[in-house]
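Researcher: I'd like a candidate sequence for this fold, 464 residues long. If you have to choose between options at a position, lean toward the conservative one.
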């Protein structure tokens, strides 16, 4: 009994020592790589580990990074896209990985050959060889999914890992078996195995990862430099070709300058001041010219309208063509001109155009014209006749124009001179009448006063 009790005590002390040792161990940062063919269920598995719904996944283009805490490990998982065209980037992550998780779609037998080649490529890579590898035989929920043994056989996994001296563990699982806390524990247990392997050989792995990572960084730098040099070289060659082409076709030489000089849409906003002043002066003169022509035109129109009203009356005396539906003002103007110059009518008054010269001439005639008071040519009856027709057409006679007065008659009669003036008849008004006028009272004229006035008028007419 004493021996048994001593050995139990010894085991307990060893366990405590191990726990104390693990507790004192520092947190380890490890990077894991998750690879496999597209549609294998890598992203779904990672989501399940994180406690998220594994069904909401889309194909990964490039990679996605997941950080999680697992015991003493600070784990970073790079979930790389499994598409054929993306697999080329996998090698860039091998150096910094402590272990590999290879996911297989166990339900897809047709692609097992492709899986075998792919997994072989991964494990044979110098940066992966010798590192621990976890194979997840995923989609075990699906009917006809291959078992662990089948997959080991199909992939020739035992041979491969022995060649590459990789510690390997295969774990059947399904990302769809539960989620959150009910998540399929097989995935977690597989992850735990991998982390234990890494922990058991951590120092050696860590040294290797650090060295490989430095070498990888240097290699990437060199490759980047080579890429830059390649691009520069290509650019130089292209510029050289363009120069040669420009030399072969001199018409394209200085193309840029000619475009700048002659492009109408590219106008410099900065002009010499003398050019700006000259341009402004030209603009001012243009405005003055336009304004004066407008004023002249309106003045001519006013004159014409004035003349039209006169023509409407004066043309009546000769019955000319002025009122036969005049088509234009111009026609009327010319008609008057001809009549004024020659004193005759002309049928040519209806077929000529208006011009400034004619209008000028017309204005002069208008300003010098004096309306005769009582000449033999004029017929006062026509002028004063109430039957004088209104002009027909565009012109309305002026209402303000008063009719001409009737002539007084003959003022140079020979029998007028040398004769005594007729007696002035002054009607005699009473004082009372004058007072009535002053006071603006209506006055009734007496019969004798009226009779005397009529007599005076009769004597005066007889005398004349
Ligand atoms: N039935 C079943 N379907 C799964 C399982 N795991 C993933 N899927 C489905 O498989 C499809 C692909 O899943 P992903 O996680 O995107 O696959 P992947 O390996 O990340 O694909 P890539 O990102 O293209 O490399 C999705 O429709 C998932 O819903 C599983 O365990 N069972
Ligand atoms: Mg994915």
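Model: Candidate sequence:
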């Amino acid at each position: 009994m004493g021996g048994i009790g001593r050995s139990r005590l010894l085991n307990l002390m060893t366990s405590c020592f191990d726990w104390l040792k693990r507790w004192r161990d520092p947190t380890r940062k490890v990077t894991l790589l998750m690879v496999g063919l597209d549609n294998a269920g890598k992203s779904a598995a990672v989501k399940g580990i994180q406690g998220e719904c594994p069904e909401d996944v889309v194909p990964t283009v490039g990679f996605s990074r997941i950080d999680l805490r697992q015991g003493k490990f600070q784990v970073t998982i790079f979930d790389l896209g499994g598409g054929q065209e993306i697999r080329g980037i996998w090698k860039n992550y091998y150096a910094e990985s402590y272990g590999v998780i290879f996911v297989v779609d166990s339900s897809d037998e047709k692609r097992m050959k492709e899986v075998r080649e792919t997994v072989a490529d991964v494990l044979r890579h110098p940066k992966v060889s010798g590192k621990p590898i976890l194979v997840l035989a995923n989609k075990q929920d699906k009917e006809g999914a291959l078992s662990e043994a089948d997959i080991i056989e199909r992939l020739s996994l035992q041979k491969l890992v022995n060649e590459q001296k990789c510690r390997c563990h295969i774990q059947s699982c399904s990302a769809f078996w539960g989620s959150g806390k009910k998540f399929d524990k097989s995935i977690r247990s597989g992850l735990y195995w991998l982390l234990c392997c890494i922990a058991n050989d951590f120092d050696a792995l860590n040294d290797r990862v650090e060295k490989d990572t430095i070498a990888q960084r240097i290699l990437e730098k060199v490759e980047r430099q080579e890429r830059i040099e390649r691009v520069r070289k290509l650019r130089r060659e292209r510029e050289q070709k363009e120069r040669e082409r420009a030399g072969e076709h001199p018409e394209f030489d200085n193309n840029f300058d000619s475009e700048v000089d002659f492009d109408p849409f590219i106008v410099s906003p900065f002009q010499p001041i003398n050019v700006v002043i000259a341009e402004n002066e030209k603009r001012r003169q243009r405005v003055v010219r336009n304004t004066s022509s407008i004023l002249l035109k309106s003045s001519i129109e006013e004159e014409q309208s004035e003349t039209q009203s006169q023509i409407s009356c004066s043309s009546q005396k000769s019955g000319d063509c002025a009122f036969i539906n005049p088509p234009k003002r111009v026609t009327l103007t010319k008609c008057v001109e001809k009549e004024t110059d020659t004193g005759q009518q002309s049928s040519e008054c209806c077929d000529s155009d208006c011009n400034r010269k004619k209008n000028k001439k017309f204005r002069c005639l208008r300003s010098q014209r004096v309306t005769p008071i009582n000449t033999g040519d004029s017929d006062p009856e026509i002028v004063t006749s109430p039957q004088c027709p209104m002009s027909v057409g565009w012109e309305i006679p002026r209402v303000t124009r008063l009719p001409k007065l009737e002539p007084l008659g003959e003022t140079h009669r020979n029998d007028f001179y040398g004769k005594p003036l007729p007696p002035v008849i002054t009607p005699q008004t009473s004082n009372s009448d004058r007072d009535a006028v002053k006071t603006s009272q209506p006055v009734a004229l007496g019969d004798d006063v009226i009779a005397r006035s009529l007599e005076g008028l009769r004597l005066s007419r007889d005398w004349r």
